[in-house]
Amino acid sequence: MIDKKYKMKFTDATLQDSVAYTLVSRFNIEPSILRAEIEGSGGILILKMKGEDSKVNEAIDFFAEQGIETTELGDHILRDDVKCYDCGSCVSVCPTRSLYHDPVTFEVELKIQTCVACGACISACPTNAIKLTL
Ligand code: SF4
Ligand code: SF4
């Protein structure tokens, strides 16, 4: 069973609408859309896919044939520890508590596994210490 986050990159934004339906009906995958962005005539979708390994891989191949590139999210968010001074502004805006104060050191820590790439922390940071690489 796979339960991971992916980025899908579209060159035709109209295709985005049918992705969730296709994942459920054709591949029995449970999708959770975390973020959708239109970029010109294309766009990106950040979503979680939960389903059988073989079905997720089949779905990725299926979408690739339609020109939709799917990549697993890994090191999609980076924080520059030199620029960060633990002010906590990002902590208060993070919807998934992926940014939090360490209770012992009071330093701000980042838990990449739960980050949904919403981007809220980026605009909240006064030193531009956080970057999303989507
Ligand atoms: S992008 Fe930033 S605010 Fe959004 S979930 Fe990830 S760490 Fe939290
Ligand atoms: S808002 Fe920026 S400087 Fe402040 S704790 Fe977060 S990453 Fe560090």
Class per helix and strand makeup: alpha+beta
CATH class of the largest domain, named Alpha Beta
Q: For the residues shown, what is the average pLDDT? A: 90
The ligands bound in this entry are: iron/sulfur cluster
CATH topology of the largest domain: Alpha-Beta Plaits
- How large is the share of residues in beta strands? 25-35%
Please list the strands of the largest sheet in the order they lie side by side: 2-3-1-4
Total domain modules: 2
Calculate Rg over CA atoms.
17 Å
CATH homologous superfamily name of the largest domain? ACT domain
Provide the CATH architecture of the largest domain.
2-Layer Sandwich
Tell me about the biggest sheet? 4 strands, antiparallel
Backbone shape: elongated
**Low-confidence runs (pLDDT<50, min 5 residues)?**
none
- The end-to-end distance, rounded to whole angstroms, is 25 Å
Q: Give the ordered list of helices and strands.
A: EHEEHEEHEEHE
